[in-house]
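Appendix B, example 12.
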Amino acid sequence: MQNKTALITGGAKRIGAEIARMLHAEGMNIAIHYRSSKDEAQQLCNQLNKLRLNSAIILQANLLHIADLPALVNQAAKHWGGLDVLINNASTFYPTPVGEITETQWDDLMGSNLKAPLFLSQAAASHLKLSHGNIINIVDVHGFRPMKNHPVYCLAKAGLAMLTQSLAKELGPEIRVNGIAPGAIMWPENNLEQDTALREMILDRTALKRQGEPKDIAATVRFLIRDADYITGQVIPVCGGRSINI
């Protein structure tokens, strides 16, 4: 993984930032995409560059602006002379109860969770074919089992799981495409699932009876890049067994 390049969407915070740190520790160069979290992206970039000079950059883009995505990918590839990994991590998440769903919500949730990964993958394909690289999509256990009041989000993540399989077939043999479906790793930032009793109920539904950590997702990303040369078209649940008892 030394001197290879990864573009991570939504890489400034939370799981994206942990993926960036772990891949950087393996010797990779990291292009950190952000939409509005410039301060967090710059802080992370500075930390990585302090550890290894010229090993990280930040790139701003609104992923809903599809016409801008080829330029985002090309910037990441140009800086170090190639692209080895695209990680579609950026996501929006909020409830959309039936009867209250708006077209704006549909466009936002489907755009960030499904449309953008498709067009980013399409833009990155020519670079990744040259490097025999990887696309890794961050899906969700709720892409397989729905969560009440979140039909649009769940539908988008279900589509992302199918996109993972479809791209693996379309882009092989040069490019491997896989996904990761996190479970209870980090609680949402928008006060959903903040009730202590609800959290306990969610964790009780896991086979391991505990919450995971961002490093669990990052380690799976590392595995798919470094150790999984004969795995493609798969979505790996990293959920402590929640997906079998959701």
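The CA atoms of residues 68 and 81 lie 20 Å apart. The chain is about 45% helix and 15% strand.
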